[in-house]
């Protein structure tokens, strides 16, 4: 899967790998699900590739992904370069195992699967950033959560090493998040409940590792007051590429699933019943339906207030 690792000049990367990929792989669609809004300072799409600033522990790295004959070339800079390159296949969705996925059980799922055959479930490997972004997205609309993330990372993150695009930054480590003063949170639009949850999680962040199973990571996350099933599923789906994560408690997902599969609204219990035939692959169904925009209900009358996701 990985073809060659070399040390080079700063112009082309401290190190690089070429990852052999199938021609149908949708790199942007797969990795784009990890970006938290168009202005996410940890991601940048540019003509010369997709740029990502991240960290592994205290080591920061810049990663650039670009298509080359036979696959995707990943260049990396910074002290975390080798670790990030080792995670490149997971980030590209190449560790995603869809064996046994029975898309044919429903024509809508089958059609979405055919249309988006190159879409994979990415595994970011960055558990802590997934924890923070998921907590920030509790009970608020996505654009507000993304704005909070953007401001906090821009102010307290680490500039991306190497020849990264201007403004690209890696998110702060847990100790920085845990020490942010109250006014920083409030200026970024984060209420006390969410900021306190991040601080509590930061105190035990060492327990949230990428080598855990999704079930064990979810169990550990849920020992933190303020982290429930919705947040845990968000983290395992993004950080570990969990193919079965279901964000129970979301304000939108039950209606997406219900409308796409039955033409009617659904609640959490109804969503779980509808997804039961795909036990083990339920996150894959959710991603396909959302990507294909198959869960949109027709609008009747004036648009109401946006619903907020629960924890």
Automatic annotation (TrEMBL):
Keywords: DNA damage, DNA repair
SUPFAM superfamilies: DNA-glycosylase
UniProt-listed InterPro entries: Alkylbase_DNA_Glycosylase/TA (IPR051912), DNA_glycosylase (IPR011257)
Domain of life (superkingdom): Bacteria
Protein name: DNA-3-methyladenine glycosylase 2 family protein
């Amino acid at each position: 899967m990985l073809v060659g690792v070399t040390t080079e000049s700063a112009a082309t990367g401290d190190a690089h790998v070429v990852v052999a990929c199938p021609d149908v792989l949708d790199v942007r669609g797969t990795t784009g699900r990890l970006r938290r809004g168009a202005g996410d300072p940890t991601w940048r799409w540019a003509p010369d590739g997709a740029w990502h600033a991240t960290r592994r522990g205290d080591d920061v790295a810049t990663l650039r992904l670009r298509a080359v004959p036979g696959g995707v070339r990943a260049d990396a800079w910074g002290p975390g370069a080798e670790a990030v390159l080792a995670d490149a296949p997971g980030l590209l969705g190449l560790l995603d195992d869809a064996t046994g996925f029975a898309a044919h059980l429903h024509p809508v799922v089958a059609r979405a699967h055919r249309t988006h055959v190159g879409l994979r479930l990415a595994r970011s490997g960055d558990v802590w950033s997934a924890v923070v972004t998921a907590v920030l997205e509790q009970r608020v609309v996505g654009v507000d959560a993304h704005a909070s993330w953007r401001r906090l990372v821009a102010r307290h993150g680490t500039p991306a090493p190497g020849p990264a695009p201007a403004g690209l930054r890696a998110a702060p480590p847990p100790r920085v998040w845990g020490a942010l003063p109250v006014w920083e949170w409030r200026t970024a639009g984060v209420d006390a409940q969410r900021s306190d949850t991040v601080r509590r999680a930061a105190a035990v962040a060492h327990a949230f590792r990428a080598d855990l199973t999704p079930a064990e990571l979810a169990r550990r996350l849920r020992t933190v007051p303020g982290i429930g099933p919705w947040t845990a599923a968000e983290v395992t789906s993004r950080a570990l590429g969990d193919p079965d994560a279901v964000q129970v408690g979301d304000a939108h997902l039950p209606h997406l699933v219900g409308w796409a599969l039955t033409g009617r609204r659904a609640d959490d219990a109804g969503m779980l019943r509808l997804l039961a035939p795909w036990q083990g692959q339920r996150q894959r169904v959710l991603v396909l339906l959302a990507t294909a925009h198959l869960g949109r209900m027709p609008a009747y009358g004036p648009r109401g207030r946006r619903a907020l996701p629960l924890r």
